[in-house]
Design goal:
The chain is of the alpha+beta class. The chain contains 9 helices and 14 strands. Strand 4 and strand 5 form a beta hairpin. The chain is globular, with a radius of gyration of 19 Å. The termini are far apart. It binds flavin-adenine dinucleotide. Flavin-adenine dinucleotide binds next to strand 2, helix 4 and strand 10.
Length: about 280
């Protein structure tokens, strides 16, 4: 769709060229959402894809994704990681979470991990990924400082987050301790090619990493809910944790009723618990 109120396209190549960002300015990453609906308030687009950020950096500590890393690049890790990091057994989760955003290969090659997280939709598949793997986000402020936030605190509700005007999500870090875990994944959507209604992911850390069991609920809820247990919980502990999710946190939209999401997400969580016990 043409954004016919846009008068200027800025393409900064250095950090200090990003600001000032004011009313009527919008960060442009892949543009797959920005160009998908009218944006009458936007006068200027600031394209962050020319900043030369390395899409992803692997180290012994984990993986740092630039916000501009595409979903296709994230998905590709499921195939490439086993050869270079065979101990990172969470590798299948990258592709699985990308398929929670059902879109054409063209969208996958363009949409970015940062754009998906900044939109902060319940069905944000990169929010599901980061929630399951202890994702920590780094944000640049206009005054030259930066702050970090766990994904569970970054997303505050349906399409809301902690970003202030002028803030730019720079990167998403996933620690090696989470990448070394075994994972279990369930996704449900009302139609095979529809947006996710429920995503539940379980993670069992290695004994050397503490043996924790981590259960995350996304899409079904307006923001991520992540529960950490010292070891594999029994079914009643899973049910008790699930019951703490507030009534008004279950997503209500065309992709599923809150009651369905609440009931079925518990069934899926118990399946994952049994599978990983
Ligand atoms: C066919 C199709 C299916 C889709 N399905 C889903 C789905 O299932 N779930 C879902 O969540 N979304 C979905 N989307 C919406 C969207 O395309 C994706 O969320 C995508 O990942 C957004 O990334 P982008 O890089 O294209 O973002 P853009 O469109 O470039 O930007 C999205 C928003 O984030 C802001 N932004 C982008 N990057 C940054 C940054 N680094 N710092 C600060 N602000 C930033 C932009 O200003 C804008 O407000 C779908 C879109 C299409 C076209």
């Amino acid at each position: 769709m043409d954004l016919n109120t846009v008068e200027v396209l800025s393409t900064p190549t250095r950090r200090d060229e990003l600001w000032p960002l004011g009313h009527g300015d919008a960060i442009l990453a892949g543009g797959t959402w920005l160009f998908s609906e009218p944006q009458p308030q936007i006068r200027r687009l600031v394209d962050i894809t020319r900043l030369g950020w390395q899409p992803m950096t692997l180290s012994d500590n984990g993986i740092e994704f630039a916000a501009t890393c595409t979903l296709a690049e994230v998905s590709g890790l499921s195939q490439s990681l086993p050869a270079v990091r065979p101990d990172w057994t969470a590798a299948p989760l990258f592709h699985q979470c990308c398929t929670a955003l059902l879109a054409s290969p063209k969208i996958w090659r363009t949409a970015t991990i940062g754009g998906n997280i900044c939109l902060s939709f319940p069905a944000g598949s990169m929010i599901s990924l980061a929630s399951a793997l202890d994702g920590d986000l780094a944000v640049w402020r206009a005054d030259g400082t930066r702050y970090t936030s766990p994904i569970t605190e970054f997303v505050t509700g349906s399409a809301t987050n902690v970003l202030q005007p002028g803030d730019i999500l720079r990167s998403i870090f996933l620690p090696a301790s989470a990448l070394r875990a075994r994972t279990g994944y369930r996704k449900l959507a009302p139609s095979p090619l529809g947006r996710s209604g429920i995503v539940v992911i379980g993670r069992r850390d290695t004994d050397d990493d503490g043996g924790r069991f981590v259960l995350s609920f996304t899409a079904a809820t307006v923001r991520p809910y992540v529960f950490t247990f010292g070891a594999i919980p029994d079914p009643s502990e899973v049910a008790a944790a699930h019951a703490t999710i507030p009534d008004d946190a279950w997503t209500r939209d065309a992709h599923g009723d809150p009651d369905w999401r609440r009931g079925v997400s518990l069934v899926l969580a118990q399946q994952i618990r049994s599978e990983m016990a």
